[in-house]
Amino acid sequence: MRPGHSHTSPRPQRTLGYTIIEVMIASTLGLMVLAAGYSFLFFTLRAMSGISAQSVMNQKGANALEFIESRARLATYMATSSSGNTLTLGFDDDPTRDTDGDAKTYDDRDHYEQFKFIGTSSTNVLACATNNLIYIPNTNSTYQRVLISGGVRNLPGFKVFSTTNSVITVVRFGIADPKTSDHYQAIDLQGSAVSLNRLWNTNVITIAP
Question: Which of 55, 121, 169, 192 is a plausible cystine mate for 72, CB 3.0–4.6 Å?
């Protein structure tokens, strides 16, 4: 070593990299984040699916109920079966003619229409999965239209169709969309309609049954 000069040994360079433990910790944290993200996505999609199903049922039920009420208001005759599963409505096709010969032109029954609840009379969701609500525009024809396909059910303690004072139609039913034994979407509907072609002595409206 020359006088006046000092010698410094070079520092050893550290090799960059990860140990197995660091890799395992990072992997575990990554899997936890992915699992949390998957769970959030799963429950979000499930909630959106439930909201969509509820919206569809609300629309179907409201449309069917509104249609039944609109036909009942124009009926000259209404009656229900003893089971309450069938509503029969009579209509005057020509208000300028007296087809039944009673000297009144507004109360004829030129054709009959029916609304029918088809299926099992039960409040159990799974038992009602294949129940339907149908409309028959003319009882002399075999044509029928399905208003609600599947899931129609009775409300506890009530018939689907009932009438009071011969001029009021009351409709009560529910719709259920079973997913599993412990999770389903359901709605309950109730409505009534008063015939606009009623006789004067039926103008007193009683409380619906």
Answer: 169
Sequence ranges of the domains in the chain? 20-202
Helix or strand holding residue 50 (H, E) = helix 20-74
Whether the CB-CB separation of 134 and 146 falls below 8 Å is answered with yes
* Residue 33 CB-density burial (10 A; 0-12 exposed, 13-18 middle, 19+ buried): exposed
Q: pLDDT 10s digit of each residue in the chain, 209 long?
A: 555 555 555 555 555 556 777 667 777 777 777 777 666 665 565 555 556 666 777 888 889 999 999 999 999 899 999 999 999 999 988 888 888 888 887 788 889 999 999 998 887 878 888 999 999 999 999 999 999 988 899 888 899 999 887 788 999 999 988 665 455 678 899 999 888 775 544 444 444 44
The Cα–Cα gap between 127 and 129 comes to: 6
Tell me how crowded residue 32 is: count the other CB atoms within 10 A of its CB: 10
Q: Which two tokens stand for residue 95?
A: 């208000």
